[in-house]
Amino acid sequence: MKDWIALSDLSQPPEGEARPLRRALFICEVSLPLASTAVVLDWQPQWDEARTFSVFLDGKTGIVVLQRTGNAVRRHVLPGPLPMGQGTARITYGWNQLADRWVLTFSLLGQGEELRAQGVNPIMLREEDLSDMCRPDGAGSRHPSLLWFGVTQGNEPPARAPWVGLRTPIETARGPVSAGNLRPGDMVMTEDNGLQPVLNLHRLRLPSRGSFAPVILRAPFLGQRSDVLISADQLVLMDGPEVEYMFGEEEVLIHAANLTDGTIARVDGYRAATDCVAIDLGMPELLLADGLRILSHGPVAEAPRSVLHPFEAQQLVSLIGRRTRHGAA
User: Fold this and answer.
1) Which has the closest alpha carbon to 38: 23, 56, 24, 53?
2) Can you give the pTM of this predicted structure?
3) Residue 321 parent element (H or E)
4) For residue range 155-169, what is the model confidence (pLDDT) as tens digits?
5) Quick one: 71 exposed, middle or buried, by C-beta within 10 A (0-12, 13-18, 19+)?
6) φ, ψ (nearest 5 deg) of residue 237
């Protein structure tokens, strides 16, 4: 799992001798609001050596991360009150044994600044701890509001990226090929510049809930022949009379997340993780994918069409929705 040491529900036994993680970052996302205090995660295996990793969340008193290894016990606290409105909250707990530091944070995604506490003398988790913690049948219990959790060795969660599902048919010089079967050097068809070579394929395994939840574009509302699974960050080309009427342009780009009206598209948060691929052509190009036109992955550069702001996208989707109620275009 690139960038991730562990992801919930995807247990991966450690290779070789289990070792402590001297530097890592635990991340979890929680659906709000909560009715009362929640034990978000509670892992206490029945092993020879007593071990505990628990996360407590309360809007008034704050967050407590409780750790135990043998006789060593630590309570890491981020004092409340916490902003506990509607939405998705992210909790991170990072530790660096070499620097003798831990950092605990809380944020409501897209709603305000991050709250932070830090201290010294952290306890390290081991790879075998994470393997058991992530197993659905492991020693841990999870609150119903917990969307997902994972551990990485970076300072931040691995970045979200535009991607497509492995089964998405991409138009190539030899016909439609599933995105998961593409290889560097393959010639793929683009909207503006014909056949272009694939420079790189970034194969990813990412969480599929909370802020990482993907989107299903439902057939045949946008011209595709089957449902297509893509990243919420993926840009999709839109055209038609509604686009010309609202924006005076023939074509615009819209983030897939802004298409989720329940008819044209919906959020797909039912699986623990998704295997996917980001197709890099070196420059932003519009790939042809089962009747859709989607922007390729690559270095930050100016998009080939105007990109709608969320409020503009909402108005456009509302207009298109009125038409699709009377039959898909």
Assistant:
1) 56
2) 0.83
3) helix 310-324
4) 777 767 789 999 999
5) exposed
6) -80, 135
